[in-house]
Every structure is written in C-alpha cells, then in structure tokens.
Amino acid sequence: MTTTLVPPAPARAHRDPNVLRWLGAYTSSMLGDNVFYLALSWAAVRAGTPAQAGLVMAASALPRAVLMLGGGVVADRLGPRTAVIGSDAVRCAAVLAVAALLFLTDPGLWPLALLACVFGAVDAVFLPAVGALPARITGADQLARVQGLRGLALRGASVVGAPLGGLGVALGGAPAAFALAGALIALSLPLLLSVRVRNLPAATERGATAWADLRAGVRHVRRHRVLGPLMIAIALGDLGFVAPLNVGLTLLADHRGWGAAGMGWVLAGFGTGAGAASLLLAARGRLPRAGLVTGCACAAGSVAVGALGFVPGLAAAVGTALLVGLLTGLSGALCGALLQTQADPAFLGRVTAVAGLVSLGLTPLSLPLAAAATGAFGLGPVYAVSAAVCGLGGLLFLAVPALRRAELPG
C-alpha cells in the first residue's frame, strides 16, 4: 500500500511566525519614526525660530525624493532584508548620536538639520526595501493579508507614537525622546535578523550596472499592462486626497468653528475608517474582483471627500471622515496589494520606489495649491475639485480593462 504525504497548507499571514516577526520589526521601526519626528520638531522649535524649525522638518523631503529611485535599485540589488536592516542600523546610530550630543551640549540647529537629511536619504532605501520584503517572506496568496496587517501596524504606530514621544519629552526633553526613538528602531534589528527570506534566481535580480537596473525597473512599470495605469491612478488619488485631509481640514475646522478638538475628532473618524479597511483586508486575505472593488471604492471615496467640504456640523463631518477613511483606506490597501502581486518580485524594490516617488513628488505640490485656491475661491470649490481629481483615479480603474480585471491570488 502506497501512502501519499500531502504537504501541510501554508500558515495564513496572521498566524505565520515569520510574518509576525517582520510585522513586529516594522511596527517597532514605525513607532521609532513617529517618536523621532516629534522629538525633531520639539528640538527644532526650542533651538530656533518657527521658520527655521519648519526648514529643519522639511530637510528630509528633498533627499528622500531625489534618491528614491536609486534606493529601489539598492533594495533589489542587495536584497530587501539586507537593505532594511542596513537602513534601520544607520537610522538608529544617527538618532542615538544626536541624542548623546544633545545630552552633552547645546549645539543649535545644525545637527538637527543634518539628522533630518540623513533620515531622508536613508528613507530613500528603507521605503522601497520595506515594499519589496513581503514577497520574500510569504506566498503570493498571503500578500493582500500582509498589506492589511501592515496598514494596521502603521495606524497603530501613528496613534501610539505621538504620546510616547510626548512622554519622552516630558521626562527628559528632546535628548530623552531621541534616545527612545533610537531604542525603538534598534528593537527592530534582532527581529529583522530572525526573518527568513526566499531568494530569487540571481540571473533575474541584477543587471550589469545600477543604471541599467534603474532603466529596467522604469521600463518594467511603463510596459506592464497593470502597473503603468496603476501608477497613474495612485497619483490621481493622492493628488486629490491629501490636501483636503491636511491643510484643507485645518482651514475647514477654523471656518466652521470646530477648533483643534473638532479637527482631532474628524481625524479620529478618518483613522478609524482606515483601520477598519486594513482589518478587513487582513482578515479576509483577498477580495474577489479586486480591481473592480478598488475602482468603486476610490470613486465612492472621492464623493465622500467632496462631501466633507460641505457638511455643516461636527458630527456629520466625523461620520463623513469615517467613510472617507474606510473607502480610501480600502482602495489604498488594495492598490498596495496589487503592486505586490502584479510586479515581478525581482523588480519590487524599484516598483515600490516609483510608487513612492509618485506620491511623495505630487503630494507636497497639492498643499500650497490647495491653500492658495481656498483663499481665492473658498473651501467648497476646492473640496469639489479635489474630489473630482481623486475620482479620476477610480474611473481609471473602471475604464482600463487590465485594471478592472486585476485579481489578487488566493
């Protein structure tokens, strides 16, 4: 009698120890990021004028944007696990060095500006590597669930990070907060070292030169029937969505008389909706007709974004923001999952870098434009235009057959 051994089914992402170790490392690193930026803001305000503090806080944006595509090449050539570990090690060392410097002396703004620049440059490698790593630690059928878990970790880190940073500042000022940020980032290193990764065939991983790799990555995105239009949809969604939930919400709260507390409630509604969307994706693992669902969620979310500019009461605004968070959170998480599953794993670092550059490059442009347009035309028209731009991303999903028919494995 012959016995056939059936291999056990792979563990779902939320029960896979390897994925959970990666998730713990990612959460710890994101907590460190949130504490770091609060400490940087506090230290910069105490060391200089408000304008100088603003420049210090913005100092990380330029190197991050300029180096992002190169960071994707580094992530794909070295491997995402190595790139993430190296990035976290550099960030940890830089933050702890500045913490020690602030404990010993009062050096002024220059070390803070230098630290912000270092963080931005390292983020240019860290962000693409983080995007490329899930495909190496789990199966394709679990990537959507991992994307949901990552969204939950990001939301949790945002909620917990600010109070942690504030506690550090209250107990020991900026040096203590920087030390806490460095310790949280350091905590991610042993967890990352314990994560097992799957290697890709060497022949598909790298070209003759880094420049050749960069061109190959851009070409892979441009010629791919899903990735090319997906990048345009992501750009439209971010361009229309970010301004209403940032500078637009501040102006709206002031105009309606809600105050800072009211704005906090609206942001809490948005965060709750986005967290629920991540939880849904983490629990289900995939949604049938992912491309169609993404397009519909983005289109409906754009309507909610537009409505937010016209609701008169705070309670209605909180409910609308919850709907915005749920719909745009779902569409954003599904876009991330589609990036993970549609791209060739050997190109994931570069594909993630292109997506990050699209978001990081366009988002800052929308904020001053939205503020200027609000002064000229009022809040209602600005929210309506933003909703229309965001809605174009959803319509693109519905109009392009490759996007509409895109599926998640499972």
How would you describe this structure to a colleague?
By secondary structure, the protein is an all-alpha fold. Helix content is 81%, strand content 0%. It is built from 17 helices and no strands. The protein has helices spanning 17-47, 50-58, 61-78, 80-104, 110-132, 134-137, 143-193, 202-205, 210-223, 227-241, 247-256, 259-284, 290-308, 314-342, 348-377, 379-399, 401-404. The protein is globular, with a radius of gyration of 22 Å. Mean pLDDT is 85; it is low at 1-9.
**How many DSSP H or I helices?**
17
List low-pLDDT spans. Answer: 1-9
Q: Name the helicity range.
A: over 70%
Cα gyration radius (Å):
22 Å
Query: What is the 3D shape?
Result: globular
Separation, N- and C-terminal Cα atoms: 34 Å
Per DSSP E runs of 2 or more residues, the count of β-strands stands at 0
Mean pLDDT: 85
Q: What does the largest sheet look like?
A: none
Quaternary assembly: single chain
Topology:
Layout lengths: L16 H31 L2 H9 L2 H18 L1 H25 L5 H23 L1 H4 L5 H51 L8 H4 L4 H14 L3 H15 L5 H10 L2 H26 L5 H19 L5 H29 L5 H30 L1 H21 L1 H4 L6
